[in-house]
Amino acid sequence: MMEEQEKGKKAKKVKAPKTEGKKAVSFMEIVSGEFLLKDFVFSNIPFILFIIFLGLLIVSKGYYAKQLIQDINQTQKQLDAVTTDYVESKAKLEEETTRGNLLEDLSETGLKETTNPVKVIRIEKAK
To answer: How many domains does the chain have?
Structure first.
């Protein structure tokens, strides 16, 4: 019976995993900057610089996209303004070239509108 109790106690005991030679980085090491002096950091400097470079690329991509959106909006406003001018000019031209306005403008030169319909003259070719 004693042996069964000892086995039960041994089975209940769970050992914490050991960190063989590795220490967890404590909050104080991060605040003081001591973790930067470890061999792990020195051996991985190229990788750390690569990660920093990728971060800079992501930030610059965001600014570039923002600038593109502003350029697109500005170009759209310019296009809308030019389209409005085109529509206004076209309407003005149609108004000025109406039959009544043309008759008024041509009356000063002495030209008058014909009242006779146009006749078509057809010439038959001899075979």
So the answer is: 1
Q: Please report the DSSP string for 48-94 in residue order.
A: HHHHHHHHHHHHHHHHHHHHHHHHHHHHHHHHHHHHHHHHHHHHHHH
The answer to the question of residue 13 being in a domain is no
Per the listing, tokens 């980085």 go with: 25
Among positive and negative, which fits the CA dihedral 103, 105, 107, 110?
negative
pLDDT above 90 covers a percentage of the chain that reads 37
Q: Which residues contact 112 (CB under 8 A, 6 or more apart)?
A: 106
Domain of 95? 28-103
| Residue 29 CB burial class (10 angstroms; 0-12, 13-18, ≥19) | middle
**Alpha-carbon distance 41 to 29, whole Å?**
13
C-alpha 126, offset from chain centre: 73
84 in Cβ contact with 90 (< 8 Å): no
Q: Tell me the residue ranges of DSSP E strands in 22-93.
A: none
104's tokens: 């008024």
Is the whole model's pTM more than 0.85, yes or no?
Answer: no
